[in-house]
Amino acid sequence: MNTFSRVAVVTATLTIGLGALSACGANDDGGDDGGGGGDKEKKIALLLPETKTTRYESFDKPLFEAAVKKMCDTCTVEYLNADQDASKQQQQAQSAITNGAKVLVLDPVDGKAATTIVKSAQSSKVPVVAYDRFIEGADYYVSFDNERVGQMQAEALVKATGDQGDILMLNGSPTDPNAAQFKEGAHSVLDKSNLKIVAEYDNPDWSPDNAQKFTSSQFNKIEPQDLAGVYAANDGQAGGVFAAFKAAGVAKIPPITGQDAELAAIQRIIAGDQYMTVYKPIRREAEKAAQLATDLANSVDIAGTEDVDGVASFILDPIVVEKDNIDDTIVKDGFYTVEDICTPEYADACKAAGLS
């Protein structure tokens, strides 16, 4: 059953546009400026889980910070990264609350452990926006349809393999609630297909190194050239899988899935070394979270949510990216330029793909 019990709570939509926010501070609850209290600094804490996945430092953080700056000239962002340590993230969150954060925007290392952060924040009347990963009991949730991501990956793998043969399956971290949804979505497709999962792995920290080691270890039991494909839940793991095949001397890499549209993954797709990725337009997600956070900091009413397991949510649509639609998706959105992708090493592949 789809874990997203998505029931519209409010039919109005919340405009993403950066200029849509009303004058910052109009509903401010503080500020001894004698002019109605509009310019007291409002702290918004952005807590991200790790740095091994390139999107967080390269996209989520700067996009969120830029959006907040445009939306609210009295808001400041306190950025904290937990380096895949749930205890560290709890300490960071408590510190942010103690230091006067008006809102926590939290992408949890461990979704279950993060419920403690939510309770602590709410006891201090600080709302929590679960960002990208679901947290039970959070005030709001902004993400993509994660089960659909897994389905898209699996559907692409079925298509690429002709629905025949043995595959490996590499999932995300068991402590990441999104990973469970990707996995569920993928299994809903793969379990009905003719593909046989000969080995499955839940990667403790989404580590590309772990993905490479797991894949290489399977080559002690399976001839790598006999594999029809590999389900990798994200691009970091896809890179580890690819490295394992190359180290094993495999000339023709079987189809490998991915997610996050990392630059290295787009280049592998251009070169034929990765079959696909799932592009989640991070700009839209970061700007939606920024608008939500600034609205909450300024006591603006929130509209346009859906219900996801009891949490008011904004759920965005992911996009499958293969070689033939890179230009119409990644490049068109300005996520990467052709120059970013088509470095000298990939110039010939880009030309062949019509991307030069």
UniProtKB/TrEMBL annotation:
Highest taxon of the lineage: Bacteria
Q: Where in the cell is it found?
A: Cell envelope
Which is one GO molecular function term here?
Answer: carbohydrate binding
Record-given protein name? Substrate-binding domain-containing protein
Q: What PANTHER family does this protein map onto? A: D-XYLOSE-BINDING PERIPLASMIC PROTEIN
The Periplasmic binding protein domain extends over 44-298
One matching Pfam family: Peripla_BP_4
Renumbered to this chain, the signal peptide range is: 1-25
GO CC annotations?
outer membrane-bounded periplasmic space
Primary place of residence?
other
Q: Which InterPro entries match?
A: Bact_Solute-Bind_Prot2 (IPR050555), Peripla_BP_I (IPR028082), SBP_2_dom (IPR025997)
Question: What Gene3D superfamilies does this protein map onto?
Answer: 3.40.50.2300
Question: Keywords in UniProt for this one?
Answer: Signal
Does Signal count among this protein's keywords?
Answer: yes
Q: Which SUPFAM superfamilies match?
A: Periplasmic binding protein-like I
Determine if Signal is one of this entry's keywords: yes
